[in-house]
Amino acid sequence: MIELNAIHRAYRSDEVETTALADIDLSVQAGEFVAIMGPSGCGKSTLLNILGTIDRPTSGTYLFEGEDIAKAPEAQLAKLRRDRLGFVFQSFNLIDELTIAENVALALAYRSMPAREKRERVDAAMDRVGIAHRRNHHPHQLSGGQQQRAAIARAIVGEPKLILADEPTGNLDTENGAQVMDILTRLNADGATIVMVTHSPAHADIARRTVHMLDGRILSAVRRAA
Ligand code: ADP
Ligand code: ADP
C-alpha cells in the first residue's frame, strides 16, 4: 500500500539545518499494524506527517497505492487525505462546539453521498467504538477515553485505506489506553491498515511489527507472528 524510498527531510532555519529524517525506506502492506518507537526528537512525528501528506520529504519517493505522491499538487493530497486517510491524535482534536455525532459527521462533509447514508455511517462508526450513547454530548462532557473513542469514530467513518495514529494512548490512563488499543486491534483484524507512533512498549507489542527509530533513521524492525 505504501512505499517510502530514500526519504530525507531537513529543516532549515537561519543558517542551521536539522535533519529530521535521513534515508528512510519503509513499506507497509495493506492490513498491517505497524508501531513506530524511538526517543523524543528521533523523527517519529515527521515520518507520520509525511505518511499523512501533511508534510513533504525534501527528497525521496512516496508511493501510495502505486502512485508517486511526493511531489503531487496540494489539491490532490487534500483529496487523498479526505478520501483515503484517517488521523488519530494524542490530544483527540475534537471540536467542542459540536456534538460527538457532528464531530464524526464532519469527516464526511465533502463526500457526495445521500444524507441518510451519511447518518447510517456515522451511527455505525460510533457503534464500533462504543460511543453511540454519547452522540449528543459535547467533547468536554466526556472522559478522555470516550473522547479518543469518538476521535477514532471520526477517523474510520470515511472507511480510510490507512489509519495514522500519533500516540493515541499518550493522554490516557492504563484502562482507557487498553480500551483504545482493543479498538485499534479490532479495526486491524477487520482489515484496517494502521501505523501508530507510541512510547508504550506494551502497546507496540500489540502491533504486528515495530519499527525502531534513532536520529532520523530506522534502526531495526521487529516482526511478530500473527
Ligand atoms: P519525534 O516525533 O520523534 O519527537 P520529530 O519528528 O518531531 O521527532 O522531530 C525530529 C527532528 O526534527 C527534531 O530534531 C526536531 O527538533 C526537528 N524538527 C521537527 N519539526 C521541526 C520544524 N518545524 N522546524 C525545525 N526543526 C524541526
Ligand atoms: P468511561 O469510559 O467514562 O468509563 P464508558 O462509555 O466506557 O465510560 O461507559 C459508560 C457506560 O456505558 C458503562 O456502563 C458502559 O458499560 C456503557 N457502555 C460502554 N460502551 C458501550 C456500548 N458499546 N454499548 C452499550 N453500552 C456501553
TrEMBL record:
Q: Which Pfam families does the annotation name? A: ABC_tran (PF00005)
Q: Which residues form the signal peptide?
A: none
Gene3D superfamilies to which the protein is assigned, alphabetical: P-loop containing nucleotide triphosphate hydrolases
Question: PROSITE patterns given for it?
Answer: ABC_TRANSPORTER_1, ABC_TRANSPORTER_2
Question: Which InterPro entries is this protein grouped with?
Answer: AAA+_ATPase (IPR003593), ABC_transporter-like_ATP-bd (IPR003439), ABC_transporter-like_CS (IPR017871), ABC_transpr_LolD-like (IPR015854), MacB-like_ATP-bd (IPR017911), P-loop_NTPase (IPR027417)
Q: Which CDD domains match?
A: ABC_MJ0796_LolCDE_FtsE (cd03255)
Q: Name one GO cellular component term.
A: membrane protein complex
Report the GO molecular function annotations: ATP binding; ATP hydrolysis activity; transmembrane transporter activity
ABC transporter domain: residues covered: 2-225
Which key words tag this protein in UniProt? ATP-binding, Cell inner membrane, Cell membrane, Membrane, Nucleotide-binding, Transport
Q: Which family does it belong to?
A: Belongs to the ABC transporter superfamily. Macrolide exporter (TC 3.A.1.122) family.
Show the PANTHER family listed in the entry: ABC TRANSPORTER ATP-BINDING PROTEIN YTRE, IMPORT ATP-BINDING PROTEIN
The name this protein goes by in its record: Phosphonate ABC transporter ATP-binding protein
Species of the source? Sphingomonas pokkalii
Lineage here is: Bacteria, Pseudomonadati, Pseudomonadota, Alphaproteobacteria, Sphingomonadales
